[in-house]
Structures are given as C-alpha cells and as structure tokens.
Amino acid sequence: MWKTYRFLGIFIIFLVGMTLAACGDGNQENESKSDNANESNGNEIGEKSITLGVDNYVSNTSNTYVAKLLLEEIGYDVEVNQTDVGVEYTGLSNGSTDAIVGAWLPTTHGSYWDEYKDDLEKINTVTEKVELGLAVPAYMEDINSIEDLANNTSNVGEKLEWTITGISPGAGEMKMMNNEVMPGYGLNEDWELLESSGAAMSAALSDAIDQKEPIVVTLWTPHWTFNEFDLKILEDPKGTFGEPDDVFSVAGKDFKDQSPAAYKFLEQFSITKENTQKMMVDIKDGMGEEEAAQKFIDNNPDLKDEWLEGFE
Question: Which of 123, 228, 251, 300 could form a disulfide with 255 if both were Cys (CB 3.0 to 4.6 A apart)?
C-alpha cells in the first residue's frame, strides 16, 4: 500500500511539473506574440490607436481614407475624425488628433499653421501645386478674370444676382475670399459670397451647367468637377489667392516617438492630383469614401508597394 501511495505521489508531482512547464511556455509564447504585435516587419508600431483628422474637402477625405486603410494593414487601429479646419488644427495641437494628410500650405491653412505651428511638424509633401480660385463654366466666354466681375463685364453681376457661390465658412479658401480677394478687387461693395458647403457648391455648379446658366464658384484642384465639366479658373492679376499651395502631412511633435511606423509610412505617402480626382469622381457618383479609397488601392498595386516599402 505504501508503495502505491508513493507511486501516486511521484505521478502527481510529475503532472504538476508538466503543467507549470506548459504555462511557462504559454507565457513565453504570449510575450512573443505581444512583441511581434508591436512590430511591422521590424518597424516599431508604438501606440496602435491613431486618429486622423480631415476637413470637408473631398480631395482631403479620399486621401485620408487611403492613408487609413494602409495604416491598418501595417497594424494600427485608425479612426477618421471629420471636422471643420479650425477644429482639425486645434485637435493636432492638443493631441486629440494625431495626424492629417491635408494641410494646404503656406496659404490656404496659413492662419491655422501660424497659430499652432510651435506644436506641429510637417512630415511630407502629399500633393504638389494645388490651386485655389474662382471658377466659371467655359461657355461664359466674356468672363476670364476676377477683374471682369469687378467691372461687371457683360452685366455678369445682374445675371448672377451679385452672388458668388462659396463653401463652408470655416474653409481656408473662404477666409481668403473675405480677407484678400473680395476687398482686393472691391467685390465686397456689390457682391455677396454665399456660404454653403463643398457638396452644395458642386450641386449648384452642376445644375447651372445643365441649364447652361452663368455661375461663379469658389473652387480648387484637385476636384472632380474638372473631370466632369469644361471649366476655367479666373485669372487673378492681383495675386490675391497667392501662389499654389502644396498639401502636407502634419502631426504633433511627439507623433514620431509615439507611433514610429505610422510616421515612417507618412514620410512615404504622396499622391498626384489626377489620382485623387479619380477617387473623387467615384465618391461623387455615390461610392463611400472608404470604398473609393479601397478601389483605388486595389487598382494601383505599384503605388501601394511604394507606400508600404519596408513594411511587407
């Protein structure tokens, strides 16, 4: 009987030892998985949760969703926060937003940059030479310059009820219209800048063209309307809109240390106006912004390889 108890005791000790060993291996495996989850092909992930800010410009939203999808492939959990431009820069400054890929500088977002630049860092040029201006349909043959509006050429003022169709009031272009363009040409004496939204402006432009009626809108490149309609940006002889901007990716100054792999990706992320406009047409036709971004990524594997170089 004693031998039996002794055998059972040895057997129980053996089982306990095996269990502890298995737990130890499991812990090591979990630690290894945890370590691997914090890296993407040798690139340190850091803080995995990222918030990308974006305004209401469709060009910026489409590019932002491309960045979101690719950052998720790298291993990040990404939220897109769509707000007014001013809120976007405030978020970058206070850390509630980590990065944006739609900073129009030095002019369009210049006032926001000047206010918050001490807390921010430019990472990379996303798109070169984007333009702002007033645009009209090409069939408005007598209207080629902002001065034609000021001079009321061909009674354009009466035809338009002295109204220029704008976008959201917080947009950088609207600030430039109110502070530079309108007073620069004396338009603020007779003309009214109508506040609306990017979508409402586009709808008004489309409706006017369908009826072949005159219209003047605040517009920019890239924009899907240039793919759909024959438009012209009015000359700006006084230079009130300034030189064309570049679009930058911008983040808070601690972003590189917090999420190193995301920072590296943004250093590599750039896109042409023409490619952005392809997504904008899909969005205009009813496709969701993220769906349009995914379609573009799927149709452009070479670009995806460039953006994710070093991550795959």
Answer: 251
Please state which of the four CATH numbers 3.40.50.150, 3.90.1640.30, 3.40.190.100, 3.30.43.10 is assigned to the domain occupying 132-233: 3.40.190.100
CATH of the domain spanning 45-130+244-307, picked from 3.30.70.2470, 1.10.287.70, 3.40.1190.20, 3.40.190.10: 3.40.190.10
Distance CA 42, CA 261 (A): 9
User: Tens digit of pLDDT for each residue in 58-93?
Assistant: 899 999 999 999 999 999 999 999 999 999 999 999
Task: Give 202-228 pLDDT, tens digit per residue.
Answer: 999 999 999 999 999 999 999 999 989
Type of residue numbered 224: W
Residue 192's contacts (CB-CB under 8 Å, 6 or more residues apart) are 162, 163, 164
Global pTM reads: 0.75
Q: Both tokens of residue 102? A: 């739609």
Angstrom distance (rounded) from CA 220 to CA 59: 10
At 222, the amino acid letter reads: P
Give Cα separations from 234 to 97, 120, 147, 160, 220 (angstroms).
Answer: 36, 34, 9, 16, 11
Environment class of residue 220 by beta-carbon count within 10 Å: exposed (0-12), middle (13-18) or buried (19+)?
buried
